[in-house]
Design goal:
2% helix, mainly beta
Amino acid sequence: ILAGTGEDSGIDFGDSGGSQRGRIIYAHNGDNFIFHNAAAETMRISGDGYITKPLQPAFFGNITSAVNNQTGDNTRYSYIPNELADRNGDFSTSTFTAPVAGLYLATVSHNLAGITSMESGQGRITTSNREHYWNFNPNNLANAAGSIGFSQSQIVDMDASDTLTFDIRLTGGSIVADIEDTTTMGVFLLG
């Protein structure tokens, strides 16, 4: 299929719902292969070999302002992040909902301040069918100013409509901490 240097070559797949329900396009200006499913671009391969998937489920968010005096003895505080990116619209309030079954990478950077004395803590990534947690001793990890930061990542197996949340739990001692605005979290479908 030939076209001019600034034009596109392609194959269209149609049905009664439209003449371009599926498409494979070669965009000569930029040397990109572009794939459409259900009349929307679903994948692009650049001339340099980069593959992008604009509808690939992916979420990234942060805590926009510090949340002071959170937790309590054995109380779990669920993060309610600000959405910085939500490619497929799968995140709402504090919950990511898997649109399809697959393996997902979930990651969170917990950042706490105001720690004076606590016996234990857990950073948690919780899915519909499993809790993934990291146990830590806030007193041993906090710096002289009473701050602690740690990252937690987990590959999780999720079915369609399974949910995922991020939270923190502290127990013993003063059991109060501030959730810092540098706390971030994300989820990405691996396949």
